[in-house]
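1st attempt posting a full record on here, be nice pls
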Amino acid sequence: MKNIKSDFLLDNTITFLNHGSFGACPKPVFDDYQQWQRKLEFEPVQFIIKQSDVFLAASKTALATYLNCDKNDFVYTVNPSTAFNLVIKNLLLKSGDEVLTTNQEYGAMDRTWRYYCKKANAVYKQQAISLPLVSKEQLIDEFFKGVTSKTKVVFISHLTSPTALLFPVKEICEIAKQKGLMTIVDGAHIPGQIALNLEQIQADIYVGACHKWLLTPKGCSFLYVKKEFQHLLDPLVISWGYESENPGHSQFLDYNEYQGTRDISAFLTVPKALEYLTSNNWNERSKNCRLLIQENYPILCDLLQTKPICTVSDEFLGQMCSIPIQPKNPIRLKEKLFNDFKIEIPITNFLNNYYLRVSIQAYNSQEDIDTLAGAIQQLKQQGEFNWK
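the predicted structure (as C-alpha coordinates):
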Protein backbone atom coordinates (compact mmCIF):
# COMPACT_ATOMS: atom_id res chain seq x y z
CA MET A 1 0.00 0.00 0.00
CA LYS A 2 1.17 3.50 -0.78
CA ASN A 3 2.30 5.85 1.98
CA ILE A 4 -0.53 8.33 2.58
CA LYS A 5 1.18 10.65 5.06
CA SER A 6 1.32 13.39 2.41
CA ASP A 7 -2.49 13.21 2.13
CA PHE A 8 -2.79 14.89 5.52
CA LEU A 9 -2.35 18.55 6.39
CA LEU A 10 -0.38 17.78 9.54
CA ASP A 11 2.96 19.52 10.16
CA ASN A 12 5.52 17.02 8.86
CA THR A 13 8.13 18.24 11.35
CA ILE A 14 6.00 16.86 14.20
CA THR A 15 5.74 13.20 15.20
CA PHE A 16 1.98 13.17 15.62
CA LEU A 17 0.86 10.43 18.02
CA ASN A 18 -2.35 12.11 19.14
CA HIS A 19 -4.96 11.39 16.51
CA GLY A 20 -7.37 10.36 19.26
CA SER A 21 -7.85 13.83 20.71
CA PHE A 22 -9.10 15.81 17.72
CA GLY A 23 -8.46 13.69 14.64
CA ALA A 24 -6.79 14.81 11.43
CA CYS A 25 -8.43 15.43 8.07
CA PRO A 26 -6.95 14.30 4.72
CA LYS A 27 -6.63 16.86 1.94
CA PRO A 28 -9.31 15.41 -0.37
CA VAL A 29 -11.88 15.55 2.45
CA PHE A 30 -10.78 19.02 3.54
CA ASP A 31 -11.04 20.21 -0.05
CA ASP A 32 -14.59 18.84 -0.16
CA TYR A 33 -15.30 20.73 3.07
CA GLN A 34 -14.14 24.02 1.55
CA GLN A 35 -16.15 23.40 -1.60
CA TRP A 36 -19.30 23.07 0.50
CA GLN A 37 -18.44 26.29 2.32
CA ARG A 38 -17.94 28.09 -0.99
CA LYS A 39 -21.24 26.73 -2.28
CA LEU A 40 -22.93 28.12 0.82
CA GLU A 41 -21.41 31.56 0.30
CA PHE A 42 -22.07 31.55 -3.46
CA GLU A 43 -25.86 31.31 -2.98
CA PRO A 44 -26.72 31.19 0.73
CA VAL A 45 -30.49 31.26 0.30
CA GLN A 46 -30.71 28.35 -2.11
CA PHE A 47 -28.09 26.38 -0.17
CA ILE A 48 -29.91 26.71 3.13
CA ILE A 49 -33.26 25.91 1.53
CA LYS A 50 -31.80 22.71 0.10
CA GLN A 51 -29.50 21.79 2.97
CA SER A 52 -31.82 19.32 4.67
CA ASP A 53 -33.89 17.98 1.80
CA VAL A 54 -30.99 17.39 -0.56
CA PHE A 55 -27.48 17.86 0.84
CA LEU A 56 -28.01 16.61 4.38
CA ALA A 57 -30.16 13.71 3.22
CA ALA A 58 -27.38 12.41 0.98
CA SER A 59 -24.83 12.64 3.77
CA LYS A 60 -27.11 10.90 6.27
CA THR A 61 -27.88 8.12 3.81
CA ALA A 62 -24.15 7.41 3.44
CA LEU A 63 -23.51 7.42 7.19
CA ALA A 64 -26.60 5.32 7.92
CA THR A 65 -25.30 2.62 5.57
CA TYR A 66 -21.93 2.72 7.32
CA LEU A 67 -23.51 2.50 10.79
CA ASN A 68 -26.23 0.01 9.78
CA CYS A 69 -29.11 2.11 11.05
CA ASP A 70 -32.08 4.09 9.76
CA LYS A 71 -31.04 7.55 8.53
CA ASN A 72 -34.07 8.97 10.36
CA ASP A 73 -32.80 7.74 13.71
CA PHE A 74 -29.85 10.11 14.05
CA VAL A 75 -29.00 13.78 13.75
CA TYR A 76 -25.66 15.46 13.26
CA THR A 77 -24.20 17.56 16.07
CA VAL A 78 -21.00 19.61 16.21
CA ASN A 79 -19.48 17.38 18.89
CA PRO A 80 -20.37 14.57 21.31
CA SER A 81 -20.68 17.02 24.21
CA THR A 82 -23.55 18.81 22.47
CA ALA A 83 -25.26 15.50 21.78
CA PHE A 84 -24.96 14.29 25.36
CA ASN A 85 -26.17 17.60 26.79
CA LEU A 86 -29.27 17.29 24.62
CA VAL A 87 -29.88 13.77 25.90
CA ILE A 88 -29.08 14.21 29.58
CA LYS A 89 -31.06 17.43 29.94
CA ASN A 90 -34.15 15.62 28.67
CA LEU A 91 -33.93 12.55 30.90
CA LEU A 92 -35.82 14.35 33.69
CA LEU A 93 -34.05 12.42 36.42
CA LYS A 94 -35.77 12.41 39.79
CA SER A 95 -34.42 12.61 43.30
CA GLY A 96 -32.71 9.35 44.23
CA ASP A 97 -32.42 8.06 40.66
CA GLU A 98 -29.07 6.47 39.86
CA VAL A 99 -27.03 6.59 36.66
CA LEU A 100 -24.57 3.69 36.53
CA THR A 101 -21.28 4.32 34.78
CA THR A 102 -17.61 3.39 35.18
CA ASN A 103 -14.72 5.25 36.72
CA GLN A 104 -13.05 5.51 33.29
CA GLU A 105 -15.33 7.92 31.43
CA TYR A 106 -14.37 11.06 29.55
CA GLY A 107 -13.97 14.06 31.86
CA ALA A 108 -16.40 16.32 30.01
CA MET A 109 -19.09 13.64 30.26
CA ASP A 110 -18.47 13.16 33.96
CA ARG A 111 -18.95 16.89 34.43
CA THR A 112 -22.14 16.95 32.35
CA TRP A 113 -23.70 14.07 34.27
CA ARG A 114 -22.69 15.54 37.63
CA TYR A 115 -24.23 18.89 36.70
CA TYR A 116 -27.63 17.46 35.77
CA CYS A 117 -27.63 14.87 38.55
CA LYS A 118 -26.91 17.57 41.09
CA LYS A 119 -29.85 19.63 39.82
CA ALA A 120 -32.14 16.61 40.10
CA ASN A 121 -30.64 15.29 43.35
CA ALA A 122 -29.85 12.10 41.44
CA VAL A 123 -26.73 9.95 41.80
CA TYR A 124 -23.97 9.58 39.21
CA LYS A 125 -22.47 6.27 40.29
CA GLN A 126 -18.96 5.59 38.94
CA GLN A 127 -18.40 1.87 39.34
CA ALA A 128 -14.74 0.91 39.70
CA ILE A 129 -13.26 -1.26 36.95
CA SER A 130 -10.04 -2.86 38.14
CA LEU A 131 -6.87 -2.91 36.06
CA PRO A 132 -5.33 -4.75 34.40
CA LEU A 133 -8.35 -5.80 32.40
CA VAL A 134 -8.03 -9.49 31.56
CA SER A 135 -11.50 -10.57 30.40
CA LYS A 136 -14.89 -9.26 29.35
CA GLU A 137 -16.43 -11.30 32.13
CA GLN A 138 -14.33 -9.46 34.71
CA LEU A 139 -15.49 -6.07 33.48
CA ILE A 140 -19.14 -7.03 33.11
CA ASP A 141 -19.25 -8.61 36.58
CA GLU A 142 -17.61 -5.61 38.24
CA PHE A 143 -19.80 -3.15 36.39
CA PHE A 144 -23.18 -4.69 37.13
CA LYS A 145 -22.39 -5.00 40.83
CA GLY A 146 -23.30 -1.32 40.82
CA VAL A 147 -26.94 -1.92 39.86
CA THR A 148 -29.53 -1.20 42.53
CA SER A 149 -33.30 -0.83 42.59
CA LYS A 150 -32.74 2.90 41.95
CA THR A 151 -30.68 2.47 38.78
CA LYS A 152 -32.43 4.03 35.79
CA VAL A 153 -29.70 4.51 33.19
CA VAL A 154 -26.49 2.80 32.13
CA PHE A 155 -23.87 5.11 30.60
CA ILE A 156 -20.65 3.63 29.28
CA SER A 157 -17.83 4.35 26.83
CA HIS A 158 -17.33 2.02 23.89
CA LEU A 159 -13.65 2.98 23.97
CA THR A 160 -12.41 4.90 27.00
CA SER A 161 -10.56 8.18 26.62
CA PRO A 162 -8.06 8.11 29.52
CA THR A 163 -7.23 4.40 29.39
CA ALA A 164 -7.88 3.65 25.67
CA LEU A 165 -9.72 0.40 26.46
CA LEU A 166 -12.45 -1.23 24.39
CA PHE A 167 -15.45 -2.13 26.52
CA PRO A 168 -17.95 -4.91 25.61
CA VAL A 169 -20.89 -2.58 25.03
CA LYS A 170 -22.97 -5.09 23.08
CA GLU A 171 -23.01 -7.50 26.03
CA ILE A 172 -23.56 -4.67 28.50
CA CYS A 173 -26.53 -3.35 26.50
CA GLU A 174 -28.05 -6.85 26.35
CA ILE A 175 -27.80 -7.32 30.12
CA ALA A 176 -29.03 -3.79 30.83
CA LYS A 177 -32.06 -4.36 28.61
CA GLN A 178 -32.89 -7.54 30.52
CA LYS A 179 -32.83 -5.44 33.69
CA GLY A 180 -35.10 -2.80 32.18
CA LEU A 181 -32.41 -0.11 32.09
CA MET A 182 -31.90 2.59 29.48
CA THR A 183 -28.50 2.37 27.74
CA ILE A 184 -26.46 5.36 26.57
CA VAL A 185 -23.11 4.74 24.89
CA ASP A 186 -20.25 7.17 24.34
CA GLY A 187 -18.72 5.97 21.07
CA ALA A 188 -16.69 9.09 20.27
CA HIS A 189 -13.57 7.09 19.34
CA ILE A 190 -15.28 4.26 17.46
CA PRO A 191 -16.38 5.30 13.92
CA GLY A 192 -13.48 4.76 11.55
CA GLN A 193 -11.38 2.91 14.13
CA ILE A 194 -13.55 -0.08 15.09
CA ALA A 195 -16.25 -1.72 12.97
CA LEU A 196 -19.58 -0.32 14.18
CA ASN A 197 -23.00 -1.91 13.69
CA LEU A 198 -25.71 -0.11 15.63
CA GLU A 199 -28.28 -2.76 14.78
CA GLN A 200 -26.18 -5.37 16.56
CA ILE A 201 -25.22 -3.25 19.57
CA GLN A 202 -28.83 -2.25 20.30
CA ALA A 203 -27.95 0.74 22.46
CA ASP A 204 -30.91 3.00 23.15
CA ILE A 205 -28.71 6.04 22.49
CA TYR A 206 -25.31 6.07 20.82
CA VAL A 207 -23.09 9.08 20.19
CA GLY A 208 -20.10 9.01 17.87
CA ALA A 209 -17.62 11.49 16.42
CA CYS A 210 -16.88 11.62 12.70
CA HIS A 211 -14.06 14.17 13.07
CA LYS A 212 -11.81 11.73 14.91
CA TRP A 213 -11.15 8.39 13.21
CA LEU A 214 -13.65 8.83 10.38
CA LEU A 215 -11.49 11.73 9.11
CA THR A 216 -14.05 14.49 8.56
CA PRO A 217 -13.22 18.12 9.43
CA LYS A 218 -13.75 19.24 13.01
CA GLY A 219 -17.33 19.76 14.12
CA CYS A 220 -19.03 16.60 12.87
CA SER A 221 -20.60 14.07 15.24
CA PHE A 222 -23.87 12.18 15.42
CA LEU A 223 -26.58 11.36 17.94
CA TYR A 224 -28.41 8.09 17.31
CA VAL A 225 -31.64 7.47 19.22
CA LYS A 226 -33.96 4.46 19.03
CA LYS A 227 -37.40 5.43 17.81
CA GLU A 228 -39.11 4.69 21.12
CA PHE A 229 -36.99 7.36 22.86
CA GLN A 230 -36.97 10.08 20.21
CA HIS A 231 -40.10 11.78 21.53
CA LEU A 232 -38.26 12.52 24.78
CA LEU A 233 -35.64 14.74 23.19
CA ASP A 234 -36.60 18.38 23.01
CA PRO A 235 -33.87 20.39 21.28
CA LEU A 236 -31.28 22.47 23.08
CA VAL A 237 -32.20 25.31 20.71
CA ILE A 238 -35.86 26.01 19.94
CA SER A 239 -36.11 27.17 16.34
CA TRP A 240 -38.06 26.68 13.10
CA GLY A 241 -38.54 22.97 13.66
CA TYR A 242 -40.94 23.65 16.55
CA GLU A 243 -44.51 24.20 15.30
CA SER A 244 -43.04 23.88 11.80
CA GLU A 245 -45.05 25.30 8.91
CA ASN A 246 -43.90 22.29 6.88
CA PRO A 247 -43.53 19.46 9.40
CA GLY A 248 -41.72 16.36 8.29
CA HIS A 249 -42.43 12.77 9.19
CA SER A 250 -40.29 12.97 12.36
CA GLN A 251 -40.61 15.47 15.19
CA PHE A 252 -37.17 14.32 16.37
CA LEU A 253 -35.64 15.48 13.08
CA ASP A 254 -37.73 18.66 12.86
CA TYR A 255 -36.74 19.75 16.34
CA ASN A 256 -33.05 18.93 16.10
CA GLU A 257 -32.11 19.60 12.46
CA TYR A 258 -33.81 22.95 11.82
CA GLN A 259 -31.73 25.19 14.05
CA GLY A 260 -31.50 28.51 12.24
CA THR A 261 -28.51 29.75 10.27
CA ARG A 262 -25.45 27.55 10.68
CA ASP A 263 -22.70 26.12 8.53
CA ILE A 264 -23.28 22.38 8.14
CA SER A 265 -20.40 21.91 5.70
CA ALA A 266 -18.56 19.51 8.01
CA PHE A 267 -21.63 17.26 8.12
CA LEU A 268 -21.74 17.14 4.34
CA THR A 269 -18.20 15.77 4.00
CA VAL A 270 -19.14 12.35 5.40
CA PRO A 271 -19.68 10.75 1.95
CA LYS A 272 -16.28 12.01 0.80
CA ALA A 273 -14.64 10.75 3.98
CA LEU A 274 -16.20 7.31 3.53
CA GLU A 275 -15.11 7.32 -0.11
CA TYR A 276 -11.56 8.15 0.98
CA LEU A 277 -11.54 5.26 3.44
CA THR A 278 -12.81 2.82 0.83
CA SER A 279 -10.43 3.93 -1.91
CA ASN A 280 -7.47 3.61 0.45
CA ASN A 281 -8.23 0.10 1.70
CA TRP A 282 -8.87 1.37 5.20
CA ASN A 283 -9.81 -1.94 6.75
CA GLU A 284 -6.31 -3.23 6.00
CA ARG A 285 -4.66 0.00 7.12
CA SER A 286 -6.62 -0.01 10.37
CA LYS A 287 -5.61 -3.63 10.97
CA ASN A 288 -1.96 -2.68 10.48
CA CYS A 289 -2.37 0.16 12.98
CA ARG A 290 -3.80 -2.23 15.56
CA LEU A 291 -0.88 -4.60 15.00
CA LEU A 292 1.58 -1.75 15.57
CA ILE A 293 -0.15 -0.98 18.86
CA GLN A 294 -0.13 -4.60 19.98
CA GLU A 295 3.50 -5.15 19.02
CA ASN A 296 4.81 -1.98 20.63
CA TYR A 297 2.63 -1.66 23.73
CA PRO A 298 4.62 -4.26 25.75
CA ILE A 299 7.92 -2.87 24.43
CA LEU A 300 7.12 0.68 25.50
CA CYS A 301 5.89 -0.58 28.86
CA ASP A 302 9.16 -2.47 29.38
CA LEU A 303 11.11 0.68 28.53
CA LEU A 304 9.13 2.54 31.17
CA GLN A 305 9.38 -0.34 33.66
CA THR A 306 5.62 -0.75 33.81
CA LYS A 307 3.00 -3.13 32.42
CA PRO A 308 0.06 -2.98 30.00
CA ILE A 309 -3.30 -2.28 31.64
CA CYS A 310 -5.08 -5.00 29.67
CA THR A 311 -4.56 -8.24 27.83
CA VAL A 312 -2.83 -7.20 24.61
CA SER A 313 -5.34 -8.25 21.95
CA ASP A 314 -8.12 -7.02 19.67
CA GLU A 315 -10.54 -7.68 22.51
CA PHE A 316 -9.44 -4.59 24.44
CA LEU A 317 -7.27 -2.55 22.09
CA GLY A 318 -7.92 -0.58 18.93
CA GLN A 319 -5.52 1.95 17.47
CA MET A 320 -4.63 3.43 20.85
CA CYS A 321 -3.00 2.29 24.07
CA SER A 322 -2.32 3.96 27.41
CA ILE A 323 1.02 3.38 29.14
CA PRO A 324 1.13 3.88 32.93
CA ILE A 325 3.80 6.42 33.92
CA GLN A 326 4.83 8.20 37.10
CA PRO A 327 6.36 11.51 36.06
CA LYS A 328 7.47 14.07 38.61
CA ASN A 329 5.70 16.76 36.59
CA PRO A 330 3.26 15.55 33.91
CA ILE A 331 2.76 19.01 32.40
CA ARG A 332 6.49 19.51 32.07
CA LEU A 333 6.85 16.05 30.55
CA LYS A 334 4.30 16.79 27.86
CA GLU A 335 5.97 20.12 27.12
CA LYS A 336 9.42 18.55 26.86
CA LEU A 337 8.19 15.84 24.52
CA PHE A 338 6.76 18.51 22.25
CA ASN A 339 9.34 21.29 22.58
CA ASP A 340 12.51 19.18 22.76
CA PHE A 341 11.53 16.17 20.63
CA LYS A 342 8.69 17.50 18.45
CA ILE A 343 6.34 14.72 19.59
CA GLU A 344 2.63 15.51 19.95
CA ILE A 345 1.22 13.06 22.47
CA PRO A 346 -1.24 13.40 25.37
CA ILE A 347 -0.73 12.55 29.01
CA THR A 348 -4.03 11.56 30.58
CA ASN A 349 -4.98 11.58 34.24
CA PHE A 350 -7.13 8.77 35.59
CA LEU A 351 -7.73 8.60 39.35
CA ASN A 352 -4.49 10.50 39.95
CA ASN A 353 -2.57 7.99 37.85
CA TYR A 354 -0.93 9.20 34.67
CA TYR A 355 -0.84 7.56 31.25
CA LEU A 356 1.03 8.28 28.07
CA ARG A 357 -1.62 7.63 25.41
CA VAL A 358 -0.33 6.55 22.01
CA SER A 359 -2.58 6.85 18.93
CA ILE A 360 -1.63 5.16 15.68
CA GLN A 361 -3.37 6.28 12.50
CA ALA A 362 -2.63 5.20 8.93
CA TYR A 363 -0.18 8.08 8.46
CA ASN A 364 1.94 6.75 11.35
CA SER A 365 4.70 4.17 11.09
CA GLN A 366 7.07 2.17 13.26
CA GLU A 367 9.51 5.04 12.83
CA ASP A 368 7.16 7.32 14.78
CA ILE A 369 7.02 4.86 17.66
CA ASP A 370 10.80 4.50 17.56
CA THR A 371 11.08 8.30 17.81
CA LEU A 372 8.94 8.19 20.96
CA ALA A 373 11.01 5.34 22.41
CA GLY A 374 14.20 7.27 21.73
CA ALA A 375 12.85 10.36 23.47
CA ILE A 376 11.81 8.30 26.49
CA GLN A 377 15.27 6.73 26.66
CA GLN A 378 16.95 10.15 26.61
CA LEU A 379 14.69 11.50 29.32
CA LYS A 380 15.48 8.51 31.48
CA GLN A 381 19.20 9.01 31.01
CA GLN A 382 18.86 12.68 31.91
CA GLY A 383 17.16 11.74 35.18
CA GLU A 384 14.47 14.29 34.48
CA PHE A 385 11.61 12.08 35.62
CA ASN A 386 10.82 9.40 38.11
CA TRP A 387 10.20 6.62 35.62
CA LYS A 388 9.10 3.33 37.15
